[in-house]
Amino acid sequence: MSRKHPVTHDYRLVPAAAAVWTTAVAGLFVSWQAAAITGLAAGAVGLIAWRRAWWARTCAIALLVSGPLAAAWVGGHVLRAESHPLHLAANEGRTTTLTVELTTRPKGIRAAGFGGTQAGVENVVIRATANGAQLVLLAPADKWRDLLPGQKVTVKGSLAPPRGGDLASALLRVRGPPGDPQPPPVWQAWADELRDGLRQASTVLDDEEAGLLPALVVGDTEQMAPRIVEEFRTAGLSHLLAVSGANLAIVCGAVYLLTRRLGPRPAALAALAALVGFVILAGPEPSVLRAAVMGAVALVGLVLGRQRSAVPSLATAVVVLVLHDPALGGDPGFALSVVATAALVLVAPRWARALKRRGVPNGLAEAIVVPMAASLATAPLVAGLSGQVSLVSVVANLVAGPVVAPATVLGVLAAAVAPLSPWAAEVITRVAGPAVTWLIQVGRQAASVPGAAVGWPAGWAGAIALTAVTVVVVSLLRFKKTRTLVVAVLVGGFVVLVPMRVVAPVWPPDGWKVVSCDVGQGDALVLATDTADTAVLVDTGPDPGAVDRCLKTLGIKKIPLVVLTHLHADHIGGLDAVLTGRAVGAVAVGPLKEPAWAWREVGQRARARNVRVVEPKVGERFTLPGLELEVLGPRRPPVAQDENTTVNDYSLVLKAHTKAGRVLLTGDVELAGQAALLGERDLNAEVLKVPHHGSRYSLPAFLKAVRPRVALVSVGTGNRYGHPSPHVLDVLRTGGALVLRTDKDGDLAVLPGNRIVRRRRDGLGQVVQRALPDSRWHARTRMGAVADELLGDAVAARRAQTRFRLLHLRNARRRHTRRHVPGDDHARAAADEGRGPGGGVRPRRGARVRRRPADRAGHLARLPLQRAQGGSPVAATDRGVARERGTGRTTRRGRPAALPAHGLAQDGGDLPVSNAFSGRGRQDC
C-alpha cells in the first residue's frame, strides 16, 4: 500500500560522511599533509556550527568528531604507505623475494593482440599484503589465474612505484609461478566451486550469452566477448557487468518478496541469509564487501519499509568503510556504489510508487526502477571514467530493466544448485537464456544507433561538469515557470544536434568504392561492389567491435570473400564479429599457416559458421560485379617459421580494380616481401594501402614503383611501435601522394574522381578532399616535409633581410643626417646608376646610408633546396641564388648571375627539386 505523504529523510550524518570521504581523497591524491588539513578544517566547521547553532546539534557534533578522526586515521595510513621500506625500494627498482597473502582474486588484463601475440588475458592483477604493506602484483595469467584470496605464496620479482590514488606501497612485477602456495580457506574454496558451477552451466548457451551471465550475476567478466563490453559501454549498460548494490538489492528483494507471507521478521532473516550467500558466491573482495554494505542499506530502505533510516545508514556505511580502508575513497567503484545506492534510496522509491499508482505490479515496478535509477545517477561518473556520454542510456535501461532481475535471480539459483545437480543448473540456465539474449540485443541495437554516444571531458573535471549540468536541469524542471523553457531548450538542442551528427555527415558517402576502417592498430579495408549491401573485406582488425561497427555503418550484409592477408592478431581479431549476422562466402588465407594458434582459431570460427577456407594462388583472379581482385604475392615458397618478419613477408598481396582506380593491398610485407614483388609485374596503383601500418621497413624503390596518388595508413592512436615512420611518410609525399591516416582522419572513403571523404573520429563532421588530378604534376618529384620546412626557413630569412634593408634606406635621412661633404657627387652618381653597393636604390640627398654586410642567414638551408627549371643547375651566392644558363639574368665570364632574394621569396611554392647533395640526378626525400 502506497503512502499518502512523502517520506522525510534524515540528512544529519551526510556532512560527516562527506568530510571523511573528502579527507581520504585529499590524502590519496595529494599527500598526508593535505588529509590532515582537510580533516581539521572539517572539524573546525563542525565546531563553529555547533557553537553558533547553524545546524542540528547531532549534525555539528558528528562533523566535529569525524573530521579530526579522519585526519589522523587517513593521514597515518598514507604516511605509513609512503615511508614503508618497500616503497623506498620500489623507487630504486630493486628485486626482492617476499611471502605475501592474497586479498583479492586475480583480475585479468585483456590485451588487444598485435603481430604473433594472441589477443586475450595475458596478465592478472592481484592485491596482497606483505610485512604490513599493501602490494599490487602483476603476474602471468596462466600461472596465477587459479589462486584464491587468503592463500599465502612466495613471490620473486622487481619492485616499481605504484600509481597515484592508492595505499599500495609498491607494484611487484612477477615473472614466474607462485612459490609454495598454501591452501585457501574452506569457505573460499566452496565459493570458487559455486562460481565454477555457474560458468560450467552457462556453457549450454551460446558463447556471448555464456560470457554475459556470470558477469551479470557475480561480476565475472573473464569469459566475456570484447564486442559485448564495448556495446554495453556505448549503450550505457556497463553498470550491469559489475557487482553493485543493485545486484544485492535484486537478490535480497526477490527473496523478501517470496517470503513476505511468513511475516516481516522471517522475510528479513531470509533476505539477510541471501545477502550472506551472495557475498560468499561473489567472494569477500573489497568491491564485493562494499556492494554488500550498500545492498544492505538498499534492503533497509526498500524492502523493510524504513526509508527514513536509509540515508543515515548510507552515511554511516561511508564513514565506516572509508575509515576501515581509506583506499576506497579514491576507488571509482566505491563512488559508483555510493551514488547508485543513494539513487536506490532516494529516487527509486518515488519512481516505484509512481508506477504502482499506474497499475504496474509491485515486483515489476521495482525491477524497472532499480537499474534505471542506478544508471542515471552514475552517468556523470561513467562519463568521467570513459570520456563519453551515452545518449541512449535511458531508453536502453528502460528496455533492458524488466529482464535484469529475472536473469540475476536465475543465475544465482543456478550457481547455488550446480554443486548438487549440474543437470538442474543447466536447465535453470536455459530458462535464463532468453533474458540474457534480450540484454545482448538491447545493447547491440542501442550501440548501433548513429550518435549513440558523444565525447565528454574525461577525469574529475568531466564528472563534475556533467553533474552540474544534470543538477541545473533537474532543478529547473521542478519549477513550472522554467519547466517550459528547459523543455524547449532540450528539444531545440535535440533538433539541431541530432541532424548535425546523423543527417549532415552522410556516411557512407554516395558512390564509395574503398573504405579504410578505423579499427585501431590493425587493418580492415572494405571494397565495394555494384551491389548495395555486398563488399569484399580485407583483414578484420584486432577488435571485433571496431570492424563490426564499421561494417554496420556501411550497410554491409553480404561478404563474398574475406581476405586475411596473414594470420597476425591485428588482422584476424575481428573475424568472429564479421562472421556473425552476415552472409560470408569464403575466407581466403595465405600459404603460411603461422602462428599455429591463429590458424586453429580461424579454422574453428569458419567451421562454426559453415564458411569455406580457401588459399588463393599467385595469378588467380576473383571477379565480382564492379570489382576484380588479382593475387600478386607472395612470390616465394612458404617457410614454416613462426617469426613476425617471416609471417609479414608472406602476406597476401592483392591488386583490386575498382571504379575509383587500382588499389594495391599489401598486408604487412616488409623488405624481403617488397623486394620480391619488384620487377615481377606492374605495381602502379592509384591507391596504396601502406605496408605494415607505415613501418620503417619499407623500400623507397617499392613505394616509387607503386606511385600512388592516395596512400592509406591504418594505424592506432598513440601506438608504442612508432607507426607510421616519418621517413616513409616523407617518401610518399615526395612522390606526390596524398597521405591519410586513420588515427588522425578516422574512417577513409575513396570515391571516383580522386575524391576522398574523411570521417572524423567523433562523428561530428566530414572533410572532402581531392588527390592530385594532374598526372604530369604527379610524375614529378616534390619536396618532403623536412625539405619544405628548410625552404620555409630560408624564404623567411631572405624576406626579413630584404624588408630590413628597405626600411633602413627609407628612414636613413631621418636617423642619420649629416652636412653635405664635397666629393660625394661621384658616389651618389654611382648609386643612381646601380653600380654602387646600394644596387639602384637612391637615397635622398644629404643622407648618409650605412651599408649592412651581406646577410648569410639561410645560406646552408638553401643548399639542399636549390631549384631546377629546365634542368639548369643553381648555385648559392651571398646575395641569393644564381643560375648558370637559361632563364634569368645572363651570365658573364662563366660566373653565375645573381638572383635577388625577393625573387626566391616570391616563388616559394612546391616545385621539383634537384639532387643538391650529389650535384646531379634526382633524390627522394
Automatic annotation (TrEMBL):
Entry superkingdom: Bacteria
Compositional bias annotation for Basic and acidic residues: 821-835
Bilayer topology term: Multi-pass membrane protein
GTP-binding found in the keyword field: no
Biased composition (Basic residues): 842-851
Location(s) in or outside the cell: Cell membrane
Disordered as annotated region, ranges: 815-925
Transmembrane stretches, start-end: 20-47, 54-75, 237-259, 266-282, 288-304, 334-352, 364-385, 391-415, 458-477, 484-507
Alphabetically ordered keywords of this record: Cell membrane, Membrane, Transmembrane, Transmembrane helix
Residues in Metallo-beta-lactamase domain copies: 521-717
PANTHER family: DNA INTERNALIZATION/COMPETENCE PROTEIN COMEC/REC2, RECOMBINATION PROTEIN 2
The protein's name in its UniProt record: DNA internalization-related competence protein ComEC/Rec2
Source organism: Lentzea sokolovensis
UniProt lineage: Bacteria, Bacillati, Actinomycetota, Actinomycetes, Pseudonocardiales
